[in-house]
Amino acid sequence: MAYTIEQIAQALGATAFGATDITVESVAEPAVAATDQLALAMKPEYAEQLSQGQARAAMLWEGADWKALGLEAAIISPRPRFALSGLSAMMDPGQGWATGIHPSAVIAEDAELGENVSVGPLAVIGAGAVIGAGTVIGPQCFVGAGTSIGQGGFLREGVRIGARVRIGDRFVAQPGAVIGGDGFSFVTPEVSGVERARQTLGDQGDVQKQSYARIHSLGSVWIGDDAEVGCNACIDRGTVRDTRIGNGTKLDNLVQVGHNVVVGNDTLLCGQVGIGGSTVIGNNVVLAGQTGVGDNLFIGDNAITGGGTKVLANIPAGRVMLGYPAMKMDSQMEVYKGLRRLKRLFADVAELKKTVSNTVQSD
Amino acid sequence: MAYTIEQIAQALGATAFGATDITVESVAEPAVAATDQLALAMKPEYAEQLSQGQARAAMLWEGADWKALGLEAAIISPRPRFALSGLSAMMDPGQGWATGIHPSAVIAEDAELGENVSVGPLAVIGAGAVIGAGTVIGPQCFVGAGTSIGQGGFLREGVRIGARVRIGDRFVAQPGAVIGGDGFSFVTPEVSGVERARQTLGDQGDVQKQSYARIHSLGSVWIGDDAEVGCNACIDRGTVRDTRIGNGTKLDNLVQVGHNVVVGNDTLLCGQVGIGGSTVIGNNVVLAGQTGVGDNLFIGDNAITGGGTKVLANIPAGRVMLGYPAMKMDSQMEVYKGLRRLKRLFADVAELKKTVSNTVQSD
Amino acid sequence: MAYTIEQIAQALGATAFGATDITVESVAEPAVAATDQLALAMKPEYAEQLSQGQARAAMLWEGADWKALGLEAAIISPRPRFALSGLSAMMDPGQGWATGIHPSAVIAEDAELGENVSVGPLAVIGAGAVIGAGTVIGPQCFVGAGTSIGQGGFLREGVRIGARVRIGDRFVAQPGAVIGGDGFSFVTPEVSGVERARQTLGDQGDVQKQSYARIHSLGSVWIGDDAEVGCNACIDRGTVRDTRIGNGTKLDNLVQVGHNVVVGNDTLLCGQVGIGGSTVIGNNVVLAGQTGVGDNLFIGDNAITGGGTKVLANIPAGRVMLGYPAMKMDSQMEVYKGLRRLKRLFADVAELKKTVSNTVQSD
What we know:
homotrimer; alpha/beta; Udp-n-acetylmuramoylalanyl-d-glutamate--2,6- Diaminopimelate Ligase, Chain: A, domain 1; 11-stranded mixed β-sheet; 10-stranded parallel β-sheet; lipid biosynthesis (chains A, B, C); UDP-3-O-acylglucosamine N-acyltransferase (chains A, B, C)
């Protein structure tokens, strides 16, 4: 798919300079760009690489002198990273899948498929499932009984969605994502050691050998519009009501969302984040990679965690947190500095003790 | 499936009150329960929500005054969370799958399927596999050559079980679970930096560029009765003998169990827990979400860890542990308090040094 | 498959002793070995177990007195763990899959399959894919359009590889591995709270409700020769260029590699390791289980991390690191010791303050 520099700039709401009728077929990093590629050099530090490549045109940072960079044409956007979103959508070559319903797919007779739905080879669609117009169910996907998926969705290969899940429009799911597994919910006949240790913060009392009985998940999963779920990520069913993921919320690979969790709108859960059962997470939250959140907690709107943060208590709205246990990021940084000087502190105190002891004795 | 309040109470060994011939079709949270639903209000804090919903009957906490709550009938159990287990099993609508062997499944001629085994669409069952009576092999599952699964099991969609795995009765596996992947076991021709760093606790000596040779996993996996494995969780094969998971042990989503690991009975491994190779974990242990356990360690019976705990050394039986590195929970809590006061401590010591220095000089 | 002790020793470059014409059919741990099994007792601590088993022959540690151990034959290797690699390859019974192309596989007409390629039941191979000679595509695998896999590869059941991925020779992938999911890359129209918090190290300023736009991944994934990817592990596509995994590099189960990441040669990423986007990792690196590495970082050759390490800054070549945040292992050990004595330190300082205060007053 070839576009002129002019067409691209218009689509992105950016400004085109120079020979704007040059056409490009794809994008590339500046050092390896060919003559028919648009080089992406959206920060000044990429300037030097431009001279190593063959690009005639580039997307540049605001204020860049495209002529001095040896280019024939340029696109400049005030927020180039945002422009990249539109550009990448234009240039995406996709997965190369055929459209239509593959004859090897196993589709229940009473499933309802909207207009222009595609179903890939060896996919399974269960009884009473409803798939909205234009949605693509990829190869080897599974859609459970009574599940509904909105319009314009895209399920990559091997996505698995259990029964009675409800998902909004423009849903994206990466390979191997699982939605609607049973919650991890077990109970012992008598009060367990964990229940006691939670109450006492550490003392489980006299322990007793007990086996677990299973609490079945009767709820399902509800997901809003414009959500995305990463590779091999998991969202469990609720116990009585549905587990909920809000509009515009994105889950990265290998994220775990426990039963009954409620995640708000426009929230990002990065790679390998885990959310314990019944926790509530607000809107516009960002939890960085490997963040863990205990069960039955509350995280307010706009909260942010740094990578690896372990959240053992509620987080108010707007807080930026880091560490294990999670503290405000600036306090945690102070702690980290302190830890690096801890050996010195022990030495200082030992020295002081000696000095003071001598001083007191010599008095 | 409709039940009277009387029938439910009898099945749960609980007590029914009021108009016990009222029938309910499903359960709901109190605030949204309809007239044909049983409201679940098993703690006093749910009392208020009952008045917002339409339920005529509810499951309540011990000592609740059901009449004052405006109900026509009630079920009261001394341990309502345990009663919920039985109730949820009665009310579970299931996944809505057809029974029997789907014609699209690929089943080896010499596989042995017990009475009333169901095999879903596009599942694969390998040579010599043995499936016990009443077990359900879900859509798109894979069961390897020579693998046996006991009676009454339930494998959700897309579960993958390798060759020669032996699994007991009433096994439950969630979508995407993998049992019998190869162990992560590689060796360099000469002693490696990691081997040296382990011996010296940090010094790997002169490092040398080496490639790895693969140690094949010759063992398989053995799983007892009543075990459950979560979505996209992984249990690796043993090197020489089998990796072992005991009776009644439950693994949550995205849990990783390395090669040669032995897990005892009635143990819970919560979401994203990881167990390094050859580690031995006792009975009735609970490892909370994102706990990590190093390789070749030992965790005693009834041990408990808090969320995110990183276990770098053996844990004796009955211990409640927290943090990175794992300490007894109460000691770790003390450490956390100390960290919060660390800045103040540095200031105190600096002040002391000044005072003592002045005092000594003025002597 | 039966081998004589002589044959095994020759294949491994080890030395055979005693009745080297004894044949063995498989290997076993010493305590449970039968007469037709080779016992593995490669450390002196296994000596005692030998007497419990029935083995006539064993693989022993250097210097072992095989006659005194009651054996009829023995194999001794200077580095027995390395010898185990060759031995395990000889003795591996494999997955028991049929060779050839299963009729239920869905293979694009223009896909190119080399000599002796096997494709398992219900696998899907996309348009223009190229599979090298002798490679096995397991049951229910997916290979995307335009993807190439080299010679002698082995893909276990349910592996998923997206479009345009390029993989070298002798590739091994465990069940459920996903290669070529889309990168987790989203951008807000205006500068976001996370972008501000990164600049200020904790202060996100005035937050503003914004939704995310998706940055499509236009790159794919490149993997060298002799690489291995674990169960349910994930490697994301690059944004513009390919994500890269070097020759001889091995990823364990549930590992997450973000978009644009570059991993060098002969590097091990152990279970549940996560690597943030655009990070560069050198050659011969070992990241232990649950290690997390932030985005846009650099880890030098031969670096090693301990289990659970959270890497928030670059690591120079050859460093051995531990903890959260990552420090040099010996410094971190000092910190851990300090934390255990922290309560005592607070008490000492409190005592000192009292003493000094009294001393100063009494002056």
